[in-house]
Amino acid sequence: MTRRSLVLALLFSLLSAPLVGADGLPVAKPEQVGLSSERLARIGAVLRADVERGRIPGAVVLVARKGRIAYLEAVGLRDKAAGAPMTPDAIFRLASMTKPMVTVAAMTLYEEGRLLPSDPVSRYIPAFSKLQVGVERVEPGTGKSVVYTVPPEREMTIQDLMRHTAGLTYGSRGSTAHYKNYPSSSTDAAAELTGAEFLNKLAELPLHFEPGSKWDYGFGLDVLGLAIEAVSGQKLGAFLEERIFKPLAMNDSGFVVPSHEVHRFAKGLPCDPLTGKPQRMRDSTKPHKFECGGGCGVSTAADYLRFALMLLNGGTLDGARILGRKTVEYMTSDHLVPAVDTTRLHEWPNINGYGFGLGVAVRRSAGAGGAVSSKGEYHWAGSTGTYFWPSDE
Fold it and tell me: Is the entire prediction scored with pTM above 0.85?
């Protein structure tokens, strides 16, 4: 997740419940589906202004309601250095918007009884059977921060991975030596380590907190992706292709931009427009060392709309059943009980007042949050500026 000044792409979906036809999503005038052409036009105006100010290179916005596309606009540039204009079919780095797709993939195994939320992670990743919890203390006299380890009160579960309560916090979330021992992000980990090396590294590090006690953003979905590989015997990308991408006709989604589609790949600004410092974005036209479930995916606005519609339709789209209705309800319900410390979740103003489900933030009430919405709305975003927002309003 990131501030809007770093936006690379904006995927915005305002969706409603009816199933779409087998021939794909039809186009409607906004007023035909209860939307306002005038108000939708404000979205493009804001984004074009951001492009002109150099805050973003470009964006694609897609709004659908009642199964029909009511607004689709590409603004700015797909590749500023080359002067290439943004196009509606541009392929973007999803960053953390990979996480909801991997969660859905895991829930397909849950429905088969092969990967249960209550299962300890060590059942699928034996190296995690001896994890310890780090307790950071300042030593009297020296003033140095020292990390002591204690056994966890309980093992982390698959549910902990999906709701970010496992204690596997990103290294970029803090400045102490304890944080610095962790990889900075999902994409950094996947660029430097194989899946086995990544799991072994985490297994050697103390957790940041007792599993289930706090919410903090981290590597849970990367570990979940590798657990899926252990259960299925397939690489994560192949499993997603079989269970999600192919059934939903998400033809431009995966973990690498194919060589014949590189001309559609959207590129970020070389420098942060706020700080002027160089931005480091890994080249998604080349494979990672492992297909990280926390942030390595690529997709288009149209593909991700099909994924979002599937969720909103209770697990099905165009006759393809991905999940059962009750499974989707379970996934998109708030899983953070009152005993879970949500302080770090609410550091982001846009999700102040939210809880967290499995792979998605869940709105607890119409108030408190940083944007207008309804109780029960769910969404997630990515550090490259990706964002999806299914709503049945």
Answer: yes
